[in-house]
Amino acid sequence: MENPLNAMPGAAFEIEAEATPPPAVVAPEHKDVRTGRSPGQVAWDRLKKDKVAIVCAVIILFFILVAIFAPLLTALQGTDPTTGLPASPDRTNTDLVDIDGNPLVGMSPHHWLGVEPRLGRDLFARWAYGARPSLIIGFVAAAASTIIGVTLGLLGGYVGGAVDRVISWVVDFFLSLPLLLLVLAIVPIVQLRIAGGNDLTAEELSTIRFWVIIAVLVAFGWMGLARLVRGEVKSLREREFVQAARAIGVPTHQVLFKEVLPNLVGPIIVSASIAVPAYITFEATLSYLGAGLVEPTASWGRTISDAQNSFAIYPLWLWPSVIALSALVLALSLLGDSIRDAFDPTSRR
Amino acid sequence: MLTYILRRVALALSVIMATLVSTFLLFFAGPADPAQAMCPELKCTPERLASIRTSLGLDKPLFQQFTEYFSGLFVGRDFQYAGDTVHCSAPCLGFSFHTGRPVGEMIFTRFPNTLVLTFMAVIIFVTVGVSIGILAATRRGTSVDRSLIGFSQVFGSIPYYIVALLFSLYLVTLWGVLPQFQSMDKGLLPYLGGLIAPAIILGLVTSTSYTRYTRNSMIDTLSMDYIRTARSKGISERTVLVRHGLRAAMSPIVTILGLDIAALLAGTLITEKIFNVDGIGKQAIDALRNDDLPVIMGTVLIAATAVVVMNLVVDIAYSYIDPRVRLS
């Protein structure tokens, strides 16, 4: 008695399960390949077919590899015949410059890009190591500001009321500030607050400055995403599936992370991918204007700033950093545009 | 309508007020010593430092300093400087620690340079951006469209300061194709000539985003029913594009333009620094180097006010054009 009753649904299921494969095989031929896939998967498939995105990804990967293997690449140059020392980004070699600071070595097997005027540091080593701060600042600041922006946006959009008004006001306030000027002014102040009075080495000061820049960039960089997420959440929380989840008593954090957030993955990824090149550019601009990274950290922005006055005599000092910074930022920006298009169902290139 | 305007004005005022308080706290309560900045001589005796602090009112409690600064903005205030009483008329932004001149005067004498540069750049980016955008929109999907948009995307994505720096280093400094910046005293023509290079680069880079706005807005507009109606009536394509299409497509662009002009007035920092233009941006950067707090604070305050006021004007203007805005 029990057996057939129990067996029945199971059997029916098996029949259904056996019946399912044929339509699944037919589906791709039915034009609509996108059935049953998440927006993320759709975007990923579109991205893989985007030639510009692939080229950009390769360029970005190249710079990531340069940053990771900077010591190895530097070591490939071997030891300098004059000083008898291996190339290093930080060591000054006064033997390699004349009394006026003009470099005695140009492009050579031991110094692929020559040496820096005045200090005689190996330019290739500084170039390779210079990829590190740019990439770290770009990715760390983008990650941190994304987390802050999403959190505040979720909070404002979902809780509403006074919390929302306060957050919206703070966003308005931050957006009306003259960003670059304030950041220029604040970086040295924060640096002094943290490091002032202590007797620190140049390396320690340089490291502190590195993290101060990330912190200040994050502090002034989260507003756009917060505003975007807030708007989306405000409309999502009125949707039936969110109302339903709340009605059956799903705890708030679960509603937020299981129901609301997955619908925002697209805009968040797009926003984060556009933020990375923006932060890298901002850091380089700060370094150029004198409030960015400080010696002895190797940084493309600083190198450009130092090299600009003798650009005509020593193009090898200026150009590698200019090309690297432009190529990296360009690749990241275009990849960000491609990601945005991939997530946008209405776009067609 | 009136409630909407009042609410927006109140919000704008609160933002300006908050900028004032926070920059004041940040800079004046910050660790940099303004008295030291005013006394650049190597042998600065403690007595002299103390007398500078007294004359600047830096020995007073922070709150009192703030109320004095705040009231100075509206009614002016008196400073005791080296035994004399100096009156600073409203709106008083204080005196520069470095040059000893009133900050308001310093900013307003430099402001015309920034204004002219911004104005020239606006002319360039609006004409270039809008016409390329229209061209791309009307040739939508062709190779012309793709190369124009591709080029503007690439050009707009390279860090701005690098583009401007290379332009300045090679075209202005090395090859002398374009003249360097000169002050107004040398005559109007050399002055305007010297602003061509910075205006071109600022205008061209900014135009890239206008190309894309215009193209998208034009494509949306040109797919409307009334455009089809206009075409079917036999109106020439040119009239359809300009009178029917462009006019409707321009309204969102005008909004962005309002905000961009405010941002440019505050944000020609990099351009002024690279091309050595004597505007408020370069002055602010120089002030940073000298720890000249009143100048930095005055510039921040004016820049923030410009952005907030432009925002307000754009919002209110928009609520007239589009009544739906008022309801939200």
UniProtKB/TrEMBL annotation, chain B:
One of its GO terms (biological process) is transmembrane transport. It is found in: Cell membrane. Pfam families: BPD_transp_1, BPD_transp_1_N. The chain crosses the membrane at residues 115-137, 158-178, 190-210, 253-275, 295-321. Keywords: Cell membrane, Membrane, Transmembrane, Transmembrane helix, Transport. GO terms for cellular component: plasma membrane. InterPro entries: BPD_transp_1_N (IPR045621), MetI-like (IPR000515), MetI-like_sf (IPR035906). It is a multi-pass membrane protein. Residues 111-318 form the ABC transmembrane type-1 domain. Belongs to the binding-protein-dependent transport system permease family. This is ABC transporter permease. The lineage of its organism: Bacteria, Bacillati, Actinomycetota, Actinomycetes, Micrococcales.
